Amino acid sequence: LEARAGWSPWLAELGFGAPGGAAHDPASVREPVVVTVACEGGQARLRLRGAIDLVERRGDALRAADYKTGKAEAAPGTRIGGGVTLQPLLYALTLESMLATGTLPAAEGVARVTGGRLWYCTSRGEDRRVEIALDDAGRAAVGEVVALVDRATQTAFFPRAPDKRGCSYCDYLAVCGPDAADRARRKEQDRRLEPLVALRGKP
Question: What DSSP string describes 70-110?
Fold first, then answer.
């Protein structure tokens, strides 16, 4: 399907802000990548570290693919998935920044980044592929997440407020305790949670 659409694998495990080595593509960079996001009150600069599973190329365009091994949760039209699905757009912004700063040495002839995609590449995920464009709406969605986190940092408000299913797969359940979700429901009337609740409703 990708070949028919003109996309080809280009770089695998592109690391940024990571030690590197045999596990990462030779085009990886050791320093974190700084991306700029427009958000409430101006612009925010994020220093990102990680590794992009696969960078695909079509002509002068790139996109970032993020492999998923679990059940396909994201639907077509997803951008940030209520603040849960951030990797495709953050990876796309990372590639865009690397292109702009010349820190992607293999990028000759590449001019733009179209976005990212989720690839649920197992039978459990039914091989579903969800495209997420790095367009104005995608950038604005990332900006909303950044603004919410910044606001919480400025006000020191980090409530334990998982969504309905969050505790079922959280790695930190032992810290919060088995009844964290029940305790969180008692705080649902706290108006300070309204921005978080609104964000969770965003595709």
Answer: S-----TT-SSGGGT--HHHHHHHHHHHHHHHT--TT-TT-
